[in-house]
């Protein structure tokens, strides 16, 4: 596993030892460090069309249109035959997050979901696999006879974007396909709130089963909220799940407002900390916040400028490392904030996936801590049971850098890892 950023040598351990066996792509639950995640598998297709195309298929311009599999197949085949498709992107909030995690960590993750049992060359399912890191273990996907989800973006001559969404069989994941061993031995389990919309589909029961397994085996659960409208519609159910199962909550400022009733990101994060151990809150041009708990006696004061907002001097202890609240004798709330990296990209090419990118950086740090605790249990890094390897401030920097990379490209998925980052003042401080 690659560790996030440069680290002082005394925290490292030998990695150039001879291997007794060949590396395996498939996850070995009791031998590997990995992140597991459940998602609705979907492929995003981008195509250019004219107004007549939309009329022929009864697609309402400028809106999101739900279509059945037959209509989606007909649309897709016509786009292929007339060479209208400009790009395919493997999609899904958790699919994007696991891919980016595996690219950053150069290590394994496990995707739980469905995949078509018959995949043709050039099909959307083919592109999904081609655009997903080989480090993402898909051996635990459930085979289905039909299509996975297809999200077709139709761009007309005036630049208007219209969406034809075909769920296919992406919500047919059954609880019987979920491996307790995979969840129990993971460094963390990550999922999103989208499956909660489908009370009549097996994927919701599968999600709840995963949450039960994670809670049973004390595996940190990370939940992303999806959209503001989803939170508003299912707020009571989502809040109940958060209180019972979730350790890390990831959301943007609109979702945070819908969940907590606070428009101010800091106050929304503080409210959410009544329910969870850590909050990752992305706030667009305002940057991002990372908030959580640490032990009072172990807290470390920042050397960065002190910031005040809705909470005075809120970043005072941001050089502290995150802990789960239940692992603290005297828990203290910690808040950290960072402005967009380099003020944000000169040209934003894609806003889809920036939050998922930030989350993948946080997952990398959580997994690195899990890995290092197993390999070097007597290290000074583990004299207390921490949730992550780095401090709040350092994770903020890492998450911010990954978000910048996503915003600078067309795809929500990284094609390669980040360039080496310079040591920060915080790292030198931590190593004293």
From TrEMBL:
Superkingdom per UniProt: Bacteria
Protein function: Catalyzes the phosphorylation of guanosine and inosine to GMP and IMP, respectively.
Positions of the UniProt region annotated as Disordered: 413-432
Keywords: ATP-binding, Kinase, Magnesium, Nucleotide-binding, Purine salvage, Transferase
Known pathway: Purine metabolism; GMP biosynthesis via salvage pathway; Purine metabolism; IMP biosynthesis via salvage pathway; IMP from inosine: step 1/1
Reported cofactor(s): Mg(2+)
ATP-binding recorded as keyword: yes
Alphabetical GO biological process terms: GMP salvage; IMP salvage; purine ribonucleoside salvage
Domain called Carbohydrate kinase PfkB: residue spans: 134-292
Protein name: Guanosine-inosine kinase
Enzyme class: transferase
Single GO term (MF): ATP binding
Annotated residues for binding of ATP: 282-287, 355, 400
Binding site for GMP: 39-44, 92-96, 197
Biased segments, Acidic residues type: 423-432
InterPro entries hit by this protein: Carb_kinase_PfkB-like, IngK, PfkB_dom, Ribokinase-like
Family label: Belongs to the carbohydrate kinase PfkB family.
Annotated SUPFAM superfamilies: Ribokinase-like (SSF53613)
The reaction(s) this protein catalyses: guanosine + ATP = GMP + ADP + H(+); inosine + ATP = IMP + ADP + H(+)
Enzyme Commission designation: 2.7.1.73
Any Pfam family the entry gives: PfkB
């Amino acid at each position: 596993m690659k560790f996030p950023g440069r680290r002082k040598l005394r925290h490292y351990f030998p990695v150039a030892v001879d291997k007794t066996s060949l590396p395996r792509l498939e996850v070995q639950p009791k031998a590997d460090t990995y992140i597991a995640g459940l998602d609705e598998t979907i492929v995003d297709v981008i195509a250019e069309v004219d107004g007549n195309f939309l009329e022929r298929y009864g697609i309402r311009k400028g809106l999101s249109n739900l279509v059945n599999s037959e209509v989606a197949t007909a649309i897709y085949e016509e786009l292929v035959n007339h060479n209208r498709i400009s790009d395919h992107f493997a999609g899904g909030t958790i699919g994007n997050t696991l891919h980016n995690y595996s690219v950053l960590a150069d290590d394994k993750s496990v995707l739980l979901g469905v995949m078509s049992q018959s995949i043709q060359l050039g099909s959307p399912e083919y592109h999904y696999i081609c655009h997903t890191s080989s480090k993402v273990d898909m051996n635990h996907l459930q085979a289905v006879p039909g299509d996975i989800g297809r999200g077709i973006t139709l761009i007309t001559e005036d630049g208007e974007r219209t969406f034809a969404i075909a769920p296919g069989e992406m919500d047919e994941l059954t609880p019987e396909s979920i491996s307790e061993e995979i969840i129990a031995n993971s460094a963390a389990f990550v999922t999103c709130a989208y499956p909660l919309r489908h009370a009549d589909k097996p994927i919701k029961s599968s999600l709840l089963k995963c949450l039960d397994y994670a809670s049973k085996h004390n595996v940190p659960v990370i939940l992303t909220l999806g959209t503001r409208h989803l939170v508003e519609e299912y707020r009571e159910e989502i809040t109940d799940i958060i209180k019972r199962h979730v350790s890390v909550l990831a959301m943007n400022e609109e979702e945070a407002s819908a969940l907590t009733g606070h428009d101010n990101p800091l106050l929304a994060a503080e409210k959410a900390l009544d329910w969870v151990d850590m909050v990752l809150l992305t706030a667009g041009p305002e940057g991002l916040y990372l908030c959580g708990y640490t032990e009072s006696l172990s807290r470390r004061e920042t050397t960065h400028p002190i910031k005040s907002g809705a909470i005075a001097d809120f970043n005072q202890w941001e050089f502290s490392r995150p802990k789960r609240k239940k692992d603290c004798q005297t828990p203290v709330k910690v808040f950290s904030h960072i402005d967009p990296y380099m003020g944000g990209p000169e040209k934003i090419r894609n806003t889809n996936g920036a939050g998922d990118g930030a989350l993948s950086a946080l997952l990398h740090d959580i997994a690195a801590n899990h890995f290092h605790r197993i390999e070097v249990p007597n290290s000074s890094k583990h004299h207390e049971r921490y949730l992550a390897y780095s401090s709040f401030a350092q994770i903020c920097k890492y998450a911010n850098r990954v978000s910048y990379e996503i915003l600078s490209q067309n795809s929500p998925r990284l094609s390669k890892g980040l360039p080496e980052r310079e040591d920060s003042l915080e790292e030198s401080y931590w190593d004293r």
